[in-house]
Amino acid sequence: MKFIDWIAELASETFQTTGRMTVVVQDNGSIHKSHLTRQQWQRWQAQGLFLFFLPPYCSEMNRIEEQWHQLKTHEIA
Predict the structure, then answer these.
(1) DSSP string covering 53-73, please?
(2) Beta bridge partners of 53
(3) What is the pTM of this model?
């Protein structure tokens, strides 16, 4: 949670100076939607951080998945 708190601090600075929200795109990993994380959502939004979640089972929308595929297929195999 320290990482997202750090992002929220940066988002807060951006929001205060420009009025623009920071958007973080995440998959639906359980850690991203844990009870502890959900408790912080309103605070983060007030700081100018918006969490956007990809639809379930849409790995084609998650850009890192193609990189993992290439790594597994060509580098590790």
Answers:
(1) EPPTT-GGG-HHHHHHHHIII
(2) 26
(3) 0.71
Any idea how long the chain is?
77
> Which tokens hold the place of 2?
């320290």
Structure tokens at 15: 């929001």
Structural contact between residues 51 and 24, judged by C-beta atoms closer than 8 angstroms: yes
For residue 50, the 8-state DSSP code is E
Classify the C-alpha dihedral 63-65-68-69 as positive or negative: negative
Encode pLDDT of 29-59 as tens digits.
888 889 988 999 999 999 999 999 998 888 8
Q: How many CA atoms lie less than 13 Å away from 59 in the CB half-sphere?
A: 6
How sure is the predictor about 17, in pLDDT bands with cuts at 50, 70 and 90? very high
Tokens (6 digits) for 11: 């988002």
| Token pair 């009870």 in the structure block, residue | 35
